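Subject: complex prediction, re-run

Hi both,

The earlier run crashed halfway through, so I resubmitted it with identical inputs.
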Amino acid sequence: MIELRKLVKHVGLILLALVMLYPVLWMVVSSLRPDNEIFRRPGLILDGLQVQNYGTGWTALVSPFGHYLLNSAILVLACIIGNLASCSMAAYAFARLDFTGKRLWFAIMLGTIMLPIHVIIVPQYIMFSQLDWVNTFLPLVVPKFLATDAFFVFLMVQFIRGLPRELDEAARIDGCGHARIFLRIILPLMLPALATTVIFTFIWTWNDFFSQLIYLTDPEMYTVPVALRSFVDATVSTSWGSMFAMSVVSLAPVFLAFLVGQRYLIRGIATTGGK
Amino acid sequence: MSAIGELQRMRKGSRGPLGGGRRDNKAAFVFLAPWFAGLLFITAGPIAASFVLGFTDYNLIQPPTFNGLDNFARMLTDARLHKALGVTLIYVVVSVPLQLGAALGLALLLDKGLRGLAFYRSAFYLPSLLGSSVAVAVLWRQIFGADGLINQLLGIEGRGWISDPDTALWTLIILNVWTFGAPMVIFLAGLRQIPRMYYEAAATDGAGKWTQFRSITIPLLSPIVFFNLVLQIIHAFQSFTQAFVVSGGTGGPSDSTLFYTLYLYQRGFGNFDMGYASALAWLLLVIIAGITAVNFWAAKFWVVYDD
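This time it finished cleanly. Structure:
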């Protein structure tokens, strides 16, 4: 009886997983089919591989799609570096140093995790447009160097609190200052938290549409999400095949990051709650 | 331990891991310098600035002029704003409970030492990584289109779920429920923290599965439910990409997918009506803060803290 119940449970879960993933699988399969089949073939079985959509999609916009992939890659890399540097510094201070008003600052930091970007986007845009930063990556990258992704600060604070304080004490007795304790002891030990930060920053920046839509209006500067969106507007229902093909291309890096970094993703959202 | 749990503990005044020891103001200032700059220029500063701009008329070209309470008076008669508030509220009120219900249900199913847990968890989690992308919004547009996947599977002809104002919002609600994987992972982690011995002790005392669930699982999981609820509500209020892509930036048909953030975008960045957009941003902040405050207040009645 118990075995049977387990079997039923597994069958149910597998069916549900299939339903959940079906749309994405179907998009991948459809991108490998001739355009007109997308509207009459709901199944997943391929007659043959037809990669023509990828060729058409790749060159459908002003620049080849590789240009937008490169833009996104540059942006993501810069954001990762910014988050790693600035959030780890802030986290060290919150986890290991004692200073005036610490509880208040810490509460403010936690509060900003929940702050919607839409509330600050208007004055931010005015500021960045006066600095002449619109249509550069600066409005998207500079905030990351200023530890504004408080989620990661919190993640790292949690992690540093779990490291034994004896290590710092020993280093201090040996004459190390905070800079050296941070660089030589804490940073190497918090690699798992840094890895989580890398993967989440990668995925969130790669997917982020709102701020990239606002700050990048010159087609030369388009990143993948903005380019994909302009593709939709340009080709409404004429060529779903090539649109699906480029959608698959744009999701592939996220999927790869998920495969490589699953462990860190799951642990990251399990310990801090995630988005 | 979540950010929200941390805030609640601080509110109660327990010192916890903070405080004590000798002061290190100089070093702290150096380490926090980027964060302070970010607070000043990127987060707190702009919040204050948008409060002031909310009382002005500003189109980015001419300097802002104060117009008193005009923007707020305009809100009272702005029919599209009222529509946007309604659409967003329905979206939040319907999709968040469904999403969290699915997340909790699946987490409970997966918790009991099931084989293949890692596989299922990944399969259910993946959509929450993809859900906010433009690519999935593009896909949704096809799936729920007149000759899309849903109609092909169900054998319906020519019914456009996205082009019909009565159903367009529901396709976005389905999209949000589809991303239940992230809260599910949080529930799973929470379930794992409940000590096994509680269940063993209850079983020894003759408590059945249902009693165990009601008097152990539910109360001990309530802080996690609360955390997910607060976070997903805030998150849902900010949905933008899906509605933008699915409606081609209009919020249509007939404003049926006009999310608040989409309306704010149209006013601010479509019409460069920055004064009114700032006032709208403040209203959003007040609404979200208000709902979160109510949530925290209501937590007294149903969230159990064992510390």
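Chain A has two domains: 2-56, 64-272.

- K.
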